[in-house]
Amino acid sequence: MKESQDISRLLRERGARVTPARLRVLALLRGAERGLSHHDVEKALDDGTPVDRVTLYRVLDWLVEQGLAHKTADEQRVFRFSAATTDGEPHQAHAHFVCDDCGKVFCLQDTPRAAPRLPAGFASTQVEFEVHGHCAACNVPVEEAR
């Protein structure tokens, strides 16, 4: 119940309508252990009250635009979504670490400050910094895992 109230508050703070689809999708992402693909989200929400596929795409994109979720591409170029920090603060631009094993996305505070210089005539609309590798939980040496 508290989780639903927190999510409703976050949505209202952004001037958005609190819809069942937004509530369910954000709650799912906040409870997920790893980034979820559109298909993963669709399957998880197929509990008798499925969310329309187009609505789901719109909700996921809206959550990313609002800074409530992250969108990253995995090594197969499938987009995966994960919840942003849950403190309710606006999501500031920063780098992300994506674990190639478990799919979790971690916010990095030490972010490069400047975008690369572009050739004449080019104009950027967005710059993203992403580091891929193995998180601390997945980067256990073989000897320790035994």
TrEMBL record:
Cofactor info, note text: Binds 1 zinc ion per subunit.
Binding site for Zn(2+): 99, 102, 135, 138
Cofactors (names): Zn(2+)
Superkingdom to which the source organism belongs: Bacteria
UniProt-listed InterPro entries: FUR (IPR002481), Fur_C (IPR043135), WH-like_DNA-bd_sf (IPR036388), WH_DNA-bd_sf (IPR036390)
Pfam short name (any one): FUR
One annotated GO molecular function: DNA-binding transcription factor activity
An example Gene Ontology biological process: regulation of secondary metabolite biosynthetic process
UniProt keyword annotations, A-Z: DNA-binding, Metal-binding, Repressor, Transcription, Transcription regulation, Zinc
Family the UniProt entry places it in: Belongs to the Fur family.
Name of this chain's protein: Fur family ferric uptake transcriptional regulator
Organism: Niveibacterium umoris
